[in-house]
Amino acid sequence: MDRNYMESELKKITSDLAKLVHEGNYLRGNAVIMKRVCGNPRCRCAVEGKKHISLYVCKKQDSKTSMTYVPVRLEDDVQKKIANYHKIKNLLERVSDLNYGQLKLNKEQKDV
Ligand SMILES: [Zn+2]
Q: What is d(CA 33, CA 21) in angstroms, rounded to the nearest whole number?
């Protein structure tokens, strides 16, 4: 990896990252689809066995996992927020990798 490539990559990644972070539109967790019964004995889920399909956000923290129900009207928004969080995480990782690359580059140059 050469230095110019690294710098232009870093610029590109950090600009995408800054934009996503600035929007503040992210949610840490994973989307989980679950089938459930609603509790109404006359509902089709109880009568016909056609369970409701619901979206949950599954979040792990300090070895605990929490599941948060997502109302239908918020499903698209929440899916997008979760995707944004994963994008941010990815971009952070790529910046870190580039900086590791930079360290190696500097080390090689010093050794020559
Ligand atoms: Zn039901």
A: 27
Q: Residue 25 in contact with residue 77, Cβ under 8 Å?
A: no
pTM: 0.79
Confidence of residue 103 (pLDDT cuts 50, 70, 90): confident
Tell how far the Cα of 55 is from the centroid of ligand 1, in angstroms. Answer: 15
**What are the strands, taking DSSP E only, across the chain?**
30-36, 52-61, 64-70
2 C-alpha to center of ligand 1: Å? 59
Ion ligand 1 — residues with CB under 5 Å? 38, 43, 45
Distance 52 CA to ligand 1 centre (A): 6
- The number of beta carbons lying within 10 Å of the beta carbon of residue 16 is 15
